[in-house]
Hints:
Layout: H1 2-20, H2 24-37, H3 40-52, H4 56-80, H5 85-88, H6 107-122, H7 127-143, H8 149-170
Amino acid sequence: MRLLESIHNYDIITFSWCLKHKHRDQAVKISRIVSFSADGPLYVLAGVCFLIAQNWDVSLLLALGFLIERTCYSRFKKLFKRNRPPEAIPGFKSVVEPSDQFSFPSGHTSAAFLIACSISFHFPFMAWILYPWACCVGMARVFLGVHFPSDVIAGATMGITIAATLINFLF
Length: 171
């Protein structure tokens, strides 16, 4: 329990620093756009594009990856039941309304890193764009006030682990 308490205390300190950053208004505006770029419909569009291009390897990797990622994501949310920052910090209100009740792990971040890892495996030249984008998605979720930093770290780890495991298994 001490470890969880230490992680939570670290999260509060880091979260508070992010929200007190002097350019917070600008960060929130950018964070809304970045977070939107990691919403589900754009992933479906990407998958359809790979299907139309008949890139079966990427299509299979993304389909299996998202099936596993979404399953793990929902199970971990129910298992850990970690409160989001507005419920955990008295008086705090997030900038956006989250899509579900619990915060651990960050689904936006896990999906972004799954995409980054999967597409970069097949198109290595895309890595320098996709990995920074995935990191920005995680940071955006913190700046919008819906996740703690450790939620984002867990999401990134989950997305990369799922993609790397599937890549190792399939290719």
